[in-house]
Specification:
This protein is about 70% helix and about 0% strand. The chain is an all-alpha fold and about 500 residues long.
Length: about 500
Amino acid sequence: MYASHEDIGYDIEDDPKVKKTLKRHPNIDGGWAWMMVLASFFVHILVMGSQMALGVLNMEWLEEFHQSRGLTAWVSSLSMGITLIVGPFIGLFINTCGCRWTAIIGGLVTSLGWVLSAYAANVHYLFITFGVTAGFGSGMAYLPAVVMVGRYFQKRRALAQGLSTTGTGFGTFLMTFLLKYLCTEYGWRNAMFIQGAVSLNLCVCGALMRPLSPGKEGKDAVGTDPQVLPAHSTESVKSSGQLGRAEEKEGSPGQEEALDDLAAQPCQGKAGHRENPCAFRALKAVSQLTMRVRKGFQDWYSGYFGAASLFTNQMFVAFVFWALFAYSSFVIPFIHLPEIVDLYHLSEQNDVFPLTSIIAIVHIFGKVILGAVADLPCISVWNVFLMANFTLVLSIFILPLMHTYAGLAVICALIGFSSGYFSLMPVVTEDLVGIEHLANAYGIIICANGISALLGPPFAGWIYDITQKYDFSFYICGLLYLVGLLFLLIQPCIQIIQRSRQKSVGGTCV
């Protein structure tokens, strides 16, 4: 079903007289690649971990502003949703500025959103400062972290994504305790101010995202710098019959450093000489930057609306529909579990070991284990992905039936483990569209997830306000999740039917 990407990260000799040879990039699957995993790990802690722990702040906002659960839940949902919804637009930033600068700017905006939220006078103020500002900054830091890991790994893609995304689990576990402690000791306003300072570490993570280029160490035997070309997937944007541009989305190798080197060069010309004056250097830098922005926009536009549009890939479109329904079922337990615990009078047991922390801890093992299993040569990533999804749906349906701490703990553990399939999403996306389209394609996927996360928790809160029960919220979200899974199964079923018909036609011809 999926094309192989075994040639990702290799140099291809284009001389028609010579048989094509592949030269492995020194940083693929090793070297600086593991620094990418570390940087992405901390981004997931600071972005996704913090957002999964917002149930603590949600209770503080309910007590402070005395608004309905549905309205208050919009703050958390806006933050989570916008972090993901802005994915396609962040793809434009990545094509233009590169992953490094996109993540650094995102860290600054995220910190600003947390700090401004500390001065909120009402819930509507939090919609702008926390939901929109912090959410947009988090999106700018999150997408580059996922894309860079995908670019640096070939053979261990699922394991690398699994290790990096375990930061979500660690972050949920750590941030839940941290926010509880800060809210108890200093109040929720000072807690958000401190969290804003902590979020500045996203800038450090962004600085580690070095573009994948041969640099000065990748010279071949004749002294020329080899070009690292991304692979053309035979399945990538296949329905249109055309492939998109094969250039690396970061630009040509070394392009990101070129502007820095150009700006850093001193004006060495003497006063009486007109060779290479400062004005000419500045003009050249502006010209290169303009060309880079224009090329980035063209690549971004062609990916979405051009002849090689991603939306001509039928399986990718089905994957987008799945993402529209799936994410809310994972987010809702994190937002509303603290309130469910209070309703069932389980606060004392939950204070000893929070249910959200159980999800977070098991989520860590789920991502690593599912990633390692999916990398096995005899195992299909697609099958692992589907099995984990069905387990998560089943857990969502069972959760409302559990009224004891032990029962809820078991279901939360199942939710945590099965939701480890999130580490496989970049791998599945890359197999569908190819590495050259990963930034744009994954931006669309997380945008669909963001819409789901944006509408899910307020929807559950409103149902509770009407029925005074969370049971119907989980049942309805579980049904919507099943609808999303049906979209994933439609295309494979059609392919199986077509293959069987082709075999029968071939048999009759013989």
